[in-house]
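Folding Problem: From Residues to Backbone Shape
Fields: amino acid sequence; protein C-alpha cells
RECORD BEGINS BELOW THIS LINE
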Amino acid sequence: MNEPAAASVSCGVVVTIPKGRTFYADCWKRGDDIAGDNVWYYGAYMSGDSAYYGDVSGEYLATGHDPVPGMPEC
C-alpha cells in the first residue's frame, strides 16, 4: 500500500508499505473516500533504521471496523 503525505489520494506518496508489514497507527481522521471508506489513520511505518510518518486509508488496513473503537481522533 502507498502511504501518502496527507489523507488524500491527490497527495504525494511517502513510501510504499509492503503487504503484511506493520503500520503503527496513532489516531484517525476523515479523508478521501476509497471504496466507501473515508477513515484514514495517521502513524508510522518502520523499515530498517528509517521511520516514515503519514496517513493510510482504512481500506488498506485490517482494522475490522473504521474507525477502530477506542482510537483517538487526530
About this structure: Residues 4 and 10 are 8 Å apart (CA to CA). The radius of gyration is 11 Å.
